[in-house]
Hints:
It is a single chain. This protein has helices spanning 12-21, 40-47, 65-74, 88-92, 110-116, 163-170, 190-209; strands at 3-6, 25-29, 55-60, 79-82, 98-104, 122-127, 152-154, 174-177, 182-184, 187-188. It is an alpha/beta fold. The protein has a single domain (3-209), classed as TIM Barrel (Alpha-Beta Barrel), CATH 3.20.20. Helix 1 (12-21) links the parallel strand 1 (3-6) and strand 2 (25-29). Helix 1 packs parallel to helix 7 and helix 6 runs parallel beside helix 7 (190-209). It is globular.
Amino acid sequence: MTRIKICGLTREADVEAAVEAGADAIGFVFYAKSPRAVTPERARALARLLPPFVTPVGLFVNATDAELQAGLEALPNMLVQFHGDETPADCDRMRRPYLRAARMAPGVDLLDFATRFSNAQAILLDAHVDGYGGGGKVFDWSLVPPSVSSRLVLSGGLNAANVADGIARVRPWAVDVSSGVEVSKGIKSADLIHEFCNAVRLADGRADAEPTR
């Protein structure tokens, strides 16, 4: 089963819609320059709506120890997502489970990247654009070698129309969506969230129905 993360949530209604649609994880952006940024206090209030077994994820970009600590104090059970220029030592310093984002572009050696960040719970694949984050852009999925041993989280420009193709091509452990379920930056659509989650489940069902070779 492909896990689903809905990222960049800022409103109670969007958290409730993601939970109702069956999301496995909810992402809160702790990067002040993002239009989807929330404070630790706001994230804590939103996370109170999460039932057991739905994981809060905190996205950080080149954060200081103090910024990381503030996020972890607000959400003690948070999974950390490093989305900047962090080194393996930067990611390991908090001694917490984490995801590491890889900015995919021609020439990126994903096998080497995954080896260097071998302590990551998963490698999140996003498009390489100016700044940080994918900006709603799809990267070339053929850049993902089939021999990567790490769990992969496919991100970057996903929506209900293309996520099934992404799952079929990359076979990720999870998918991550933000702008693909929005009506404006930081404002999600309950209908689009449900359509996205339904598309993932349908893709999983088709994969299960494929005959083994």
